[in-house]
Automatic annotation (TrEMBL):
PANTHER family: ELECTRON TRANSFER FLAVOPROTEIN BETA SUBUNIT LYSINE METHYLTRANSFERASE (PTHR43648:SF1). This is ETFB lysine methyltransferase. The keyword Isomerase does not apply. Gene3D superfamilies: Vaccinia Virus protein VP39. Pfam families: PrmA. One of its GO terms (biological process) is methylation. It comes from Asparagus officinalis.
Length: 346
């Protein structure tokens, strides 16, 4: 077997902020999922989105079987493993639920074990991602300090890199960024450190919001330069945006602020999977001002055609960049009267 590297992981967290260190030593389930090689990357990503705490891949060498790739995924005691796998498979359009076997692990500090695999990453010259427990390599560089143990967005995944490279090429100073599916907050933090005026991030996952807020603090970013909101909704379609404030009035005003901010952002970036990008097209675009750049990632190279077909009604000057079979599509938002605002059928 050839190890293809840790895909990512997220640690346990209580609703009250802060890592619940005792939970790191709780019992967990280790799940081995067998799938086809071409689906392994997206399935790993989807597993993390639907509640797995980690996902790493082992490819079976020289196997004649089509489903020759194993994903090892860790689930905490409170997760419904069967539902997570079935939702993850569904969200990436797999027509079958992959075969898998579950074993229960002894309590151990598995997060520390996975953390060992993360090292500083130089995304491009002068832009680094530094795991919280490592030392920056170049003090003059833009260093994004991340605790990747809490949500997706370690910086090691090609889709995150593609988005960071796009932002690096776009940000001149003073831009307003909207980050759809913020995860660890890595893109918003990078944008602000590169000179953006401010960044607003949203996510459907409370863990991600907690993690992003911790990473904002780790990077000492001013609260007026970056905020993150939880999206409430049905099947990922937003009905309401919430701050994590305990005060109901503040939660309501956060919703109105975000609705008011529609059509005002200079850059909108969304690194989510194919199906949410298709389902949420109108919503994602609605945050961009005319002429703004919209970047879409989380898609495989062969999925670009589908995204391009849909988004070309909203975007001009479309370009694609790719790393290791993953793609990022970006373009500039058309003037609103040029668009047919009704959502086309998929
Ligand atoms: C692939 S991660 C990207 C994280 C980070 N932005 C990055 O580039 O590394 C996708 C994130 O999108 C979030 N997400 C998935 N579906 C969403 C939806 N319908 N609305 C908002 N966020 C969503 C997930 O919870 C996850 O944190």
């Amino acid at each position: 077997m050839k190890r293809r590297g840790a895909r990512g992981f997220r640690a346990l967290e209580t609703e009250a902020e802060g890592t619940a260190s005792s939970a790191l030593f709780s019992p967990y389930s280790s799940v081995r999922i067998r799938c086809e090689k071409h689906a392994a990357d997206t399935l790993s990503e989807a597993l993390l989105c639907f509640g797995a705490s980690s996902a790493s891949m082992d490819e079976v060498d020289n196997s004649v079987d089509l489903d020759n790739t194993w994903i090892t995924s860790i689930f905490t005691d409170d997760q419904d493993v069967n539902a997570c796998i079935s939702h993850a498979a569904d969200s990436i359009g797999l027509s079958y639920t992959p075969k898998y076997e579950i074993s229960t692990g002894k309590p151990c500090d598995w997060v520390a074990n996975v953390q060992e695999t993360f090292h500083p990453i130089e995304v491009t010259r002068g832009l680094w991602i530094i795991p919280k427990w490592r030392t920056p390599v170049d003090l003059q560089a833009i260093n994004i300090i991340l605790d990747p143990g809490l949500a997706f967005g370690t910086g090691e995944h090609p889709t995150t890199k593609l988005c960071l490279l796009l932002l690096h090429g776009l940000i001149r100073g003073g831009e307003r960024l909207f980050d759809y599916g913020t995860g660890s907050g890595v893109l918003g933090i990078a944008a602000v450190k590169m000179g953006a005026a401010f960044s607003v991030g949203i996510d459907i996952d409370l863990q991600a919001i907690i993690s992003a807020r911790q990473n904002i603090a780790l990077n000492e970013i001013d609260s007026n330069k970056m905020s993150v909101y939880l999206v409430r909704g049905e099947k990922g379609l937003p009905t309401r945006y919430e701050s994590t404030s305990k005060n109901p009035e503040e939660r309501t005003s956060a919703n109105l602020e975000l609705i008011d901010a529609k059509q005002s952002f200079d850059i909108v970036i969304a690194n989510i999977l194919l199906n949410p990008l298709l389902d949420l097209a109108e919503e994602i675009v609605s945050f961009a001002r005319p002429g703004a750049v919209i970047g879409l990632s989380g898609i495989l190279s062969e999925q670009v055609k589908q995204i391009k077909e849909l988004y070309s009604m909203y975007l001009d000057n479309i370009s694609i960049s790719e790393i290791d079979g993953w793609a990022c599509l970006h373009g500039t938002r058309k003037r609103i009267d040029d668009e047919t605002m009704s959502q086309p059928k998929r």
